[in-house]
Amino acid sequence: xxxxxxxxxxxxxxxxxxxxxxxxxxxxxxxxxxxxxxxxxxxxxxxxxxxxxxxxxxxxxxxxxxxxxxxxxxxxxxxxxxxxxxxxxxxxxxxxxxxxxxxxxxxxxxxxxx
Length: 114
Prior knowledge:
- The protein has about 110 residues and is mostly helical.
- It has helices at about 15-20, 35-50, 65-75, 80-85, 105-114.
- It has a domain at about 15-25 and about 35-85.
- It contains 5 helices and no strands.
- Helix 2 (about 35-50) packs across helix 3.
- The chain is globular.
């Protein structure tokens, strides 16, 4: 089971993956209580992965219409662009270490250019 206390499906996000994505999702500012972002995100991924119609979404992800509406909202407001954007690559400074994600080596860059 994941941290949410529900049984994870085969293609659902792991807890580690969710920790990377969660901060990129919008926070609720007003209105009624939103459905769980993780549940909605896993439902969206299920439809995108399987190619099934939205109406065939398994009940464990909630109402198909709610998942579909969240998908459209996130697509229109740029949320998916933020989530799908690769992490920034930091180049080493004068000290040589960044603590961040390293870019490809010079040798690898040369192979890519050939």
